[in-house]
Every structure is written in C-alpha cells, then in structure tokens.
Design goal:
This protein has about 230 residues and is α/β, with parallel strands linked by helices. The protein folds into two domains: about 120 residues, Response regulator (Rossmann fold, 3-Layer(aba) Sandwich), CATH 3.40.50.2300; about 100 residues, Arc Repressor Mutant, subunit A. The chain is about 40% helix and about 25% strand. A five-stranded parallel β-sheet has the order 2-1-3-6-7, sandwiched between helices. Strands 8-9-10-11 form a four-stranded antiparallel β-sheet, with helices on one face. Strands 12-14-13 form a three-stranded antiparallel β-sheet. α1 links the parallel β1 and β2. α4 packs across α8 and α6 packs across α8. The protein is globular, with a radius of gyration of 18 Å.
Amino acid sequence: MNKLLLLEDDISLIDGLSYSLKKNGFDIDVVRTVEEAKQHLTQIEKYDLLILDVTLPDGTGFEICERVRKQNTQIPIIFLTASDEEVNVIRGLDCGGDDYVTKPFKLGELCSRIRALLRRAGISAQDKTNILECGDILIDLLGSRVLLNGKVLDLTSAEYRLLCLLVRNANRIVSREIILNDLWDDAGNFVDDNTLSVYIRRLREKVEADASHPQHLITVRGFGYQWKEVEV
C-alpha cells in the first residue's frame, strides 16, 4: 500500500479526499499547516508521494516542495490549486512539482494522476543503475544528477525526467505525444500542451549557453523535439 502525505486546510475537502484515497487503496497522513508538514518531512522516506495545497494559513505548498527538493529527494509531488493561472503553474513546476490539479477536480482524475506518478517513480527506481553519457552531458541515473561539461545542473524532478527521455533518444525526433505520455499518464489526457512548452523553455534556459539559439534541445516544428549530441 502506497503512503501519501496530504497538506490541505479545507476540512470538507480533507474528509472527501481521505475517504476516496483510502477507498482506492492508499494509506494517507493529513496535515493542515506548513509547520505540521515540515515536522513530517523529518520522516519523508516513509512517504511515496506528496499532495500539497498551494495556499495555507501559515504559508504555501511551494515552501514544502522547495524544502523537499533541497534535500535532493525525488519523491513525486502534486499541487492542489484554486487557480490555473500560468504564474502559479510555472511557480509550482519551477520549484520541483510534478503535476498540478485545479480545484474543483474529480477524485477519479486525481487518483489516476497519483497512480501515473507512482508508476513512473517505480520504473525510474529500477533503471537507476548506470551512467548515461551523450557528448558534453552526463546523467548519473543512480544519483539523479546531471552534469553539463562537468558542472552539475540544478533541475526539478520533472525537468530531469524530460531530459533523460530526450537524451536516451539523442539525435532522434521525439514527438510531443510521446513526451506527454511518458511524463504524465499513459493516455496523456491530463496535461495540456502549454505545460510541456513551459518545461521545454525552462530546461532550455538551463542547458543552453543561449536559450534563444539552442544547440542541444531543438524544436522540430510540426513533430516535436530533438536532443542534439554536442561533442566535448
């Protein structure tokens, strides 16, 4: 049984979520403040996924996400937000979130996203056994680290997964559909095209010397993206 930590202050939502998640086979701990969540993070290894509300009485879910990522923990994180404004979406993705759900949402949709993230986390855990090299980039799959010309890149977990997918298919075109299916759920139903564009833009800013004239991450219009191998 997968164990989840839910950070949410809305009592009515907590009751419905707790009931639904338990009925779907999840074990769940609930905290209602950022301070409570911080206390639970001392035992973060017992959790398989975090569900974080954005707006809390004493802060935001972004604070918890940032704290978790600073510990170099790759646990999947879903944000619950009352707004789907791009600024909130970008903030959540930039601080290390893997997905977001806009209130009000269907509980079945949330459960599907949770399962998709847990499935990917399990697959990636099995694959973290070696080093992936491509020209001037090296990916330490065991340590979830990326080095570009010997310098460690500061990537969110979603950016890391996106980069791994592209580098594994270096010099080949990867369609947007394949990327969406790989990064989110099998049907690709729950993420719009704009979110992928945000990921691409942010990743480009980190791997390119000049993001407006990319050498690594190339857009192939009408098809998708291509990772070009750049020699050392």
